[in-house]
Every structure is written in structure tokens, then in C-alpha cells.
Description:
By secondary structure, the protein is an all-alpha fold. The chain contains 18 helices and no strands.
Amino acid sequence: MAESVKKTGIREFPRSFWTVITMEFFERGSYYGVMSVLSVYLVLSRENGGLAFSKESVGLIKSVITPLLYFLPILAGAIGDRLGYRKVLFFAFISMSTGYLLTGFSETYATVFLSLLLVALGAGFFKPMVAGTIARVTDQSNSSLGFGIYYWSINLGAFIFPLILVPWMKSISWNYIFFMAAIGTGWLLFLNYFVFREPKGTATGSKTIGKIISEMVIVLKDYRFILMIVIYSGFWIMYFQVYDSVLWYLTEHINMEPVNKIVNHFLSLFVNQPDWKFEAEHVTAMNAGAIILLQLFVSAAVRKAKALPTMIIGIAIGSTGMGILAIAPSPWIFLAGMFIFTLGEMTAHPKFISYVGLIAPPDKKALYQGYSFLYGVIGSGVGGVLGAWLYVLFVEKLNEPSMLWVTFSGIGFLTIIGLLLYNRFLAPKS
């Protein structure tokens, strides 16, 4: 049964809209809940409940599964258009929940890797179904509001799950974090079966796999666009450290007790003898919370600014935040660095999306926006392996952790230089 909408206003969105928003909240909450601690869990000693994998081997896992999340939506979107979103959602939820469940039971490198591949496969197929549903049940009058709610649901899940559920699950057993995610995505099968309604226009065969390949060739032949994506990926090499090397550094080298004392002193006004601790999962919650609170203000502040200069300013802010970590292993410096980095992300990335629209050929803007995701494929593919290798080199072998953050900050500033040169010599002129 198809469903469409012509009304406007937050109360007038159809049932399928709120259904996929709910799905997005639980799926992203489950995903970020796991990712907020995954790299720490995998390298933690078995005596402390981890799996004692090497950091290099964890970097390899992350450099495979995360790029899949950015690449698979292209194929999944076409499959969803041909088969219907509901069928693809069933596959996605089964794949994700099974993957999380198996990860919770896995103890060997091979089984963890394969289980996380299932998670990535499901998540990659899930993402375009939500965005596609929102696009089909909104119109020009309420699309902006609809996608704004969608963006907030992502960050709300990434805030609440790591802040509240992950510490609770971890206090029982690290494995329970994966069981939580299995339930968080598994119950969505019932929501999909009983509540979700197919939006109008799906299962029409609108785009074949052959068409996708031909479009990919068109984009890849545009060397200027691909070069811009490669340059911008430098910032995302730095970004993906937030889920790997930053968490290792926090866990192994920073004493957050001064922060804990202040937070617990505040909490003691409401509860007796609080025992809150800032741990790895709170980095993700902090990032998402800052975006929830500040993104609208940051976007408003740079609304009229040119896209490329704003991107460069944002990357400079983010690179400075990463570089601040090199000053000292202080909890306050760590928090300041992470907050400044998030400000840079909030400033740069929305303008990147805008910039892609500006430089794309007039008749191919939607196509180019669809392939702009390649920054994530490159950034995560390189960032996982590089981050692990540099962490082992600078932190564990040379005992020079400051060099790790100077190096990543340098990658950010090299990205700025690359964008300036691109703008000077290769960018399409309006």
C-alpha cells in the first residue's frame, strides 16, 4: 500500500515519515553505541573483558567495514527502488541485528570481522531507505523540515545511547553492548512489518545496476571533482580518529578524575554518592550533544559566507582542535580539543555539501551529490589503518604521543593547502 503527503507542518507528516525517523534513531543509536567503544573493547586485555587484538588488526577491521557504510547505499538505493523499501528494510534489520548478536558472542578475530561485516552490510542497505522514504513523503514545502528532523534523530541516537545505555551495559559486561544493539535493531523488524507503509513510487524499477555503473563512470571521469573529493578526504582521515586513536589515547593516557569529581559534585545535589566516570563512550556523546545544541547557530553564522572559504575555516578549526591534544595529556585539554574539533566539523561539512552543488554540472547536480560520499570511503579506509599504525609508532614505540596529534593536525592543514590550490587552478569558475 503506497503512502504520499501533500500537507505541511510537523504534525502533518505521514505515518511512514515518523516510522523511519524512529528507525533511524534506534539504528544510529545502536551503531554509535557500539562504535563509541568498539576500538577500545577489541584491544582491551581479556582480563579486563576485551579481546586483546592488536591495534593494527583493529585498524584493518575499521578500514573495511566503515567504507562499506559509505559505498553500499548507492547500490542499495537502486535495489530499494526496484524491489520496494520494505523488503530491503527487512534484509537490513536481519543483517544488522544478527551481526551485532554474533559480535557479542565472538572471541576470535575472524568471527568478529565477519560479524561486523554483517553489521556494515545491513547499515549500508538501511541508510538510503530512510532518506528515500523522507524524500518521497515530503515535498518542496516541508522537505527542509523533514530532513532537519532526520538529522537531529541521528545525533539524538548518537547522544543518548553512548551517554546512558552503553555505560549501563558495560557495567554488566562488554558483550551486553552488542546485545543491546542487536535488540535495538532487531525490534525494528516488527515496526517495519506492522507500521511501515511503502511510499509511493517505489518498486518501479527506476534505476538499473547498469545505469548505476554508467553514472559511476561519468563521475569518475571528472578528474576535477574526484581530486576535490580526495583532497577533502584528508579532513575525514582526521575525523575517523575520534573513533579509534583518540579513544585509545583517552583510555590509556588521560586521567579524567578531575572532570569526574566536578560532575559527581554536581550530581550529588540530586542523588546520593554518585559515581559517574568520563570514559570512551562519552566522546561520541559529547560530539553528538554539541551538534544538537550548536549546529543551527553555526549554520546561521556562516549562512551567507562562500562555501570554499568556510570549508577551509572549518577544517582549520578542526585541525587546531586535533593539534591541541599534543599540548599535554590533560583532561581539560582533551575536552577542549574535542569540542573545538567538533566546531570545525559543524562549520566545514555542511558547506562541503553546498560546494558540491555549486561545482557540479547544472544537469548532474543530484548525481554528483550522490557520489560526494566518496570522502567517507577514502577517509575511513585510510584513517583506520593509518591511525592504528601511527598510534603504535608514536605512542607505544617512541613514547611521543604529541607527535601523533601533530601529524594528524598536519594532515588537516595539508588539506587546506590542497583546497586552496584546487580553487586557484582547477575549480570551475562561475
